[in-house]
Amino acid sequence: MEGSRNRILGTEGEELAVRYLTDRGFSIIERNYRAGRAGEIDIIAERGDLVIFAEVKNRTTERFGGALYSIGAKKRGHIRAAARAFLAARPGYNRRGRTFRYDLLAVGGGSVEWVEDMFR
């Protein structure tokens, strides 16, 4: 039962994050991109020459720390690996002049906090 509730919250959070990005001029390239065992990226979006690989965290409480604190070294490694896999599978995105960034969209209470360039 808890897993089902978490999936619903996650989906709602991702919907809000997608609207947030599109309202700011981003086009969504892909959602829930999976690169096998390498990892998964919640949202891949672009605006001009900027491509972001976004992690969405839907928080109902700050009890265990904020959303940024939930992105540990292992999760960062999975996001990086999935981004590399995406670029290898779609070389048209990996071209000169493009900027790639890892962002966090923390969703809670109907609002979105956008942390740009959460790690390098």
Topology overview:
Elements: H1 2-23, E1 27-34, E2 40-47, E3 50-58, H2 73-89, E4 99-108, E5 111-115
Parallel strand pairs: 3-4
Antiparallel strand pairs: 1-2, 2-3, 4-5
Short description:
By secondary structure, the chain is α+β, with helices and mostly antiparallel strands. The protein is built from two helices and five strands, in the order αβββαββ.
Explain what this protein looks like in three dimensions:
There is one protein chain. By secondary structure, this protein is α+β, with helices and mostly antiparallel strands. Helices cover 32% and strands 33% of the residues. It contains 2 helices and 5 strands; from the N terminus they run H-E-E-E-H-E-E. The protein has helices at residues 2-23, 73-89, and strands at 27-34, 40-47, 50-58, 99-108, 111-115. It has a 5-stranded mixed beta sheet, with helices on both faces. Strand 4 (99-108) and strand 5 form a beta hairpin. The mean pLDDT is 86.
